[in-house]
Design a protein that fits this description.
The complex is a heterodimer.
Chain A: H1 2-15, H2 35-52, H3 54-60, H4 62-75, H5 90-96, H6 98-101, H7 106-121, H8 130-138, E1 149-150, E2 155-161, H9 164-173, E3 184-194, E4 197-203, H10 205-215, H11 220-230, H12 236-245, E5 249-250
Antiparallel strand pairs in A: 1-5, 2-3, 3-4
Helix pairs in contact in A: 2-4, 3-4, 3-7, 5-7, 10-11
Chain B: E1 10-13, H1 19-23, E2 31-34, H2 45-56, E3 59-62, H3 76-89, E4 93-97, E5 100-103, E6 106-112, H4 118-135, E7 140-142, H5 156-167, E8 170-174, H6 175-185, H7 189-195, E9 201-207, E10 210-212, E11 216-221, H8 230-243, E12 248-251, H9 259-278
Parallel strand pairs in B: 1-2, 1-12, 2-3, 3-4, 4-7, 7-8, 8-9, 9-12
Antiparallel strand pairs in B: 5-6, 10-11
The chains are: A mainly alpha, B alpha/beta.
Chain lengths: 252, 285
């Protein structure tokens, strides 16, 4: 009986179909009250997406976000028994549904929101410091052969539209204060957590190349050479020092 | 692992919005409740806020995701994540719900009712046994809010008393849930409370409820989005009279008020607890 009850309840929650579950309700029960469970399920999931994708919500408005999120929940219901971080594939879903909304830049906002969350919830760790690098150099280690890695809280995001300025403003002020045109122009953004705050910076082509190489495990020397191929005037030492200063690199 | 018990005083729900308020508290006689699922993260400011509070105050983990009465046992990964969090925070109390909330591959994020049949009772017993064994700790389980009556072979207090006795778990009596269930399903809330085995109850919750948008007060929703109603305070008094002084949580999950407003409700609970002590109630050991 219990398995039949659960199956009937699941059918109701997923499709709103009361035909099977009604046989498990006592005669005095009002079947319309079942909606508390179905509405609660859908609302909780949509609310979680609203919290996890606040700038996407601000850009499309609550009504459209509800529609988008509801479709996502129906197609990709939560699997983990927590809604923390729910909606990992939401940016891709927003991209897939582009033919409905016609707004190519929406998934860029979703990608940035997702990266923000990843940085915010990532593990705490002690970053590599300039003092440690100096000590290694003094000890005779070849700095070019050194293979640092990106800290857990540092995330690289590739965008198809130049939305970072708008995204930052929405994140901080919840609404736009000026009208901004969103141009189709690729951007690479670095998000990182510093003193419990999430920062974002648009990277130059050389900076992005340098960090992608580091991320995939290449040495400082190889990464620097690759970045210099993109921009012969790229200041490797200055960029490396800045990464250390902001606690973005860890020991490989 | 050292386990500190919850004091028989008022506690409040701790949300990230209240971290700074909690940090500034001078009041010692308070404890905080969190949903551990919201802290199943690797690190960062939210986890730090909880750890800071846990360093000063007893914490109660009130889980919503274990699906103890579900068709399958609680997913191993969920228990593992909870176990890691327990090691970090060392909560004074761990509680869950006498419900189900998922099937393999889908989590409903909703406390779904169990029919009160012998079969469902045994399923819940198996779920709690496994959960407690995996955590290496006993838990409390909470009575659900009911919105309509499902087929049953026994009353809810009997169902819960039986489950607790068979698993060694304790009970968490949610007085607002009793009130909401009595309103929606037509049961006697005072008789319900007096049928609960007093020796099993380790924690009480009170919260606000809201009338349904369409059905009005005929259908009350356990929203945790409003102050505790006067009728629920009255029912708390009845519960304390029956149980003696037990830790009482002011549970708030939505429409969050200023922290001070929650503390006011906690102080009201403290006054009722003090009165229960004076009337010779039996303290939970």
């Amino acid at each position: 009986m219990l398995s039949g009850y659960v199956a009937a309840f699941v059918a109701y929650l997923n499709h709103g179909d009361t035909r099977e579950i009604e046989s498990y309700v006592e005669s005095a029960g009002n079947l319309d009250y079942l909606k508390v469970y179905r509405n609660g399920y859908l609302k909780t999931c949509v609310d979680a997406l609203s919290q996890n994708y606040p700038t996407l919500l601000a850009v499309v408005g609550n009504d459209y976000f509800q529609i988008l999120a509801r479709h996502y929940v129906e197609e990709y219901p939560p699997e983990r028994h927590t809604l923390v971080g729910y909606g990992e594939s939401f940016p891709a879903f927003v991209d897939e549904t582009r033919e409905h909304h016609g707004l190519g830049y929406l998934s860029d906002f979703a990608r940035l929101d997702h990266a923000w969350l990843a940085s915010y919830f990532s593990a705490d760790e002690s970053p590599l410091t300039s003092e440690q690098v100096s000590q290694d150099t003094t000890a005779g280690h070849d700095i070019a052969a050194f293979t640092p890695r990106l800290c857990n809280h540092a995330n690289l995001v590739q965008l198809r539209h130049a939305v970072v300025g708008v995204w930052v403003e929405l994140r901080e002020k919840k609404q736009l204060t000026t009208q901004i045109e969103l141009k189709e122009s690729a951007q690479t953004v670095l998000l990182w957590r510093e003193e419990q705050r999430i920062n974002a910076r648009v990277l130059s082509e050389a900076e992005a190349r340098f960090l992608y190489m580091i991320e995939q495990g290449d040495s400082l020397g190889t990464s620097a050479a690759s970045a210099l191929e993109r921009d012969s005037e790229f200041d490797v030492a200055d960029h490396f020092a800045s990464l250390l200063q902001h606690g973005i690199l860890g020991r490989g | 692992m050292p386990v500190r018990g919850l004091p028989a005083s008022g506690g409040v729900s701790l949300k990230p919005e209240y971290f700074s308020g909690a940090a500034a508290l001078l009041e010692e006689n308070i404890w905080f409740e969190v949903h551990p699922e919201n802290y199943m993260i690797e690190g960062g400011p939210r986890l730090k806020g909880l750890m800071d509070a846990a360093a000063r105050f007893p914490i109660s983990f009130h889980g919503v995701g274990a699906s103890l009465g579900g068709p399958t046992l609680t997913p191993t990964e969920h228990i593992r994540e909870l176990g890691r969090l327990i090691e970090r925070v060392e909560p004074a109390s761990i509680s869950e719900h006498a419900v189900w909330s998922g099937v393999p591959g889908q989590y409903f994020a909703e406390l779904l009712p169990l029919p009160r049949t012998r079969e469902a009772m045994w399923r819940l017993v198996d779920g709690i046994d496994y959960f407690q064994e995996m955590l290496g700790r006993s838990i409390l389980i909470e009575n659900p809010s009911n919105y309509l009556p499902f087929i049953s072979e026994m009353d809810e207090p009997e169902f819960l008393n039986e489950v607790a006795k068979r698993t060694g778990c304790g009970l968490l009596l949610d007085v607002n849930n009793v009130f909401v269930s009595s309103n929606n399903c037509g049961i006697d809330p005072q008789a319900y409370i007096r049928t609960i085995d007093r020796d099993l109850v380790g924690e009480i919750h009170v919260a606000g409820h809201t009338p349904d948008e369409i059905h009005g007060s005929r259908l009350l929703i356990d929203s945790h989005a409003a102050p505790v109603a006067e009728s629920v305070w009255h029912l708390l008094d009845v519960a304390l009279d029956h149980l003696g002084p037990v830790p009482v949580l002011i549970e708030r999950d939505a429409n969050l008020p200023a922290f001070e407003e929650l503390l006011e409700e906690k102080r009201h609970a403290d006054r009722l607890l003090f009165r229960a002590c004076q009337h010779g109630g039996v303290a939970y050991a």
